[in-house]
Structures are given as structure tokens and as C-alpha cells.
Design goal:
Structural class of chain B: mainly beta
Strand content of chain B: over 45%
Order of helices and strands of chain A: EEEEEEEEEEE
Oligomer: heterodimer
Distance between the termini of chain A: 37 Å
Helix content of chain A: under 10%
Order of helices and strands of chain B: EEEEEEEEEEE
Number of helices of chain A: 0
Largest interface: A-B, 29 and 26 residues
Chain lengths: 116, 110
């Protein structure tokens, strides 16, 4: 069964450092997403991406965050200068259709980011 | 409270019993989905119900939706120890994003 793959599974970084989290969405999916989950809390929407541009973003997704689809397969989330509160599990997801077609998301296993 | 709030927050039952989880939301929706998350893993889609549907079944899962009350329930019948996980409802109201609730932690004791 097709799956969304994320790397790394766990990254430890120092506050202020840049971090790039990588995702390979399902190949025929057109919509891509990043969510995060702080330990024990809700899964929070960060950003959605379609047709090589951001289609929606939340208040969390400030200027420190950026996303990119550098080639035909990868979808990356960059945090420019990490803060302690960025420590969380980051989930990439993809869907075949957008809202009009009912957007069922397939999630990756997540990348745990620990900021020290 | 925010869009998509589940209750109870935690539920512990014996194998074979039914588990019912509820979700309430605030704004109008296009569809509501339920996802499952095993500890430390990603979310797995279980079932989707559209705003014009009232009930949907998938195997041992039954989902209801009451748009007048802005609520949904997920029923897992004849639970198994392997059903132990967190269950989240997620609403789609505008655009492509899903808004997740806080989840119900279900423990099924063998």
C-alpha cells in the first residue's frame, strides 16, 4: 500500500538552528500538508500546498517556516531559526483530492523535533 | 472550545464491549472524518461522513452525524485489544485543511 515517508524520524537541534524536515508524499497525490503535534496536545494544521504554492496556512506558520517542493517527489518543511516551543512531532500528509472531492489525508509516521 | 472536541478524553473498556466516542464542532462543515493514532505514530484515516449524510458504517465502525447539534459519534463494536489507540475527529469546513480535535484515548483491556 502506498505510504507517505518522512525523514528524519527524530532530530535534535540547538535553539536558533535551521531544520529541514523531508517528506515524500504518495506519488499520485496533488495536495500536501504539514501538521504538528506537541506532546500530549492536539494535531495542529500548519500549511497546505497545491500546484507548487501554499494554498492555506495557519497562524502558527509564521515567517520562520517555509515549504518547498524542490523536485517531483520531495516536500520539505524548513524552520529557519528554531525555538524551544517548536519541539513537536511534525506530520506530513498528502491527499488525492481537495475539499470538493473529499480530502482524505494519508499521514506519514512523523518527524520528532527536539529543540534544546 | 475549539472546532472538533472529543469526549470523553479517555475511555477504558473490556475486550468485547462497545466503545462510543463523541465529537462536537462549532462551524458548518463539508465533511467530518475520524482518524486513529497509535502511540507515537501517524494518523490513519478510518471513515468520512459528508454533511448531507447521517450515518455510515465500515466494518465494526459506525459513525453518526447530527449537523443540527454539530456533533458526531464513533462507535466501535466488539472491541479488541488492538483497538487501543487515540481517536480523533477532524472537520473540513473551508479549503482543504482539516481541523482536529483533542482526541479520545481508548484502552481496551484483554
Amino acid at each position: 500500500e502506498p505510504e507517505v515517508t518522512q525523514t528524519p524520524s527524530h532530530q535534535v537541534t540547538q535553539m536558533g538552528q535551521e531544520v529541514i524536515l523531508r517528506c515524500v508524499p504518495i506519488s499520485n497525490h496533488l495536495y500536501f500538508y504539514w501538521y504538528r503535534q506537541i506532546l500530549g496536545q492536539k494535531v495542529e494544521f500548519l500549511v497546505s500546498f497545491y500546484n507548487n504554492e501554499i494554498s492555506e496556512k495557519s497562524e502558527i506558520f509564521d515567517d520562520q517556516f517555509s515549504v518547498e517542493r524542490p523536485d517531483g517527489s520531495n516536500f520539505t518543511l524548513k524552520i529557519r531559526s528554531t525555538k524551544l516551543e517548536d519541539s513537536a512531532m511534525y506530520f506530513c500528509a498528502s491527499s488525492e483530492r481537495g475539499r470538493a472531492g473529499a480530502n482524505v489525508l494519508t499521514f506519514g509516521a512523523g518527524s520528532r523535533l527536539t529543540v534544546l | 472550545s475549539q472546532q472538533g472536541e472529543e469526549d470523553p478524553q479517555a475511555l477504558s473498556i473490556q475486550e468485547g464491549e462497545n466503545a462510543t466516542m463523541n465529537c462536537s464542532y462549532k462551524t458548518s462543515i463539508n465533511n467530518l472524518q475520524w482518524y486513529r493514532q497509535n502511540s507515537g505514530r501517524g494518523l490513519v484515516h478510518l471513515i468520512l461522513i459528508r454533511s448531507n449524510e447521517r450515518e455510515k458504517h465500515s466494518g465494526r465502525l459506525r459513525v453518526t452525524l447530527d449537523t443540527s447539534k454539530k456533533s458526531s459519534s464513533l462507535l466501535i463494536t466488539a472491541s479488541r485489544a488492538a483497538d487501543t489507540a487515540s481517536y480523533f475527529c477532524a472537520t473540513n469546513n473551508a479549503g482543504n485543511m482539516l481541523t482536529f480535535g483533542g482526541g479520545t484515548r481508548l484502552m481496551v483491556k484483554p
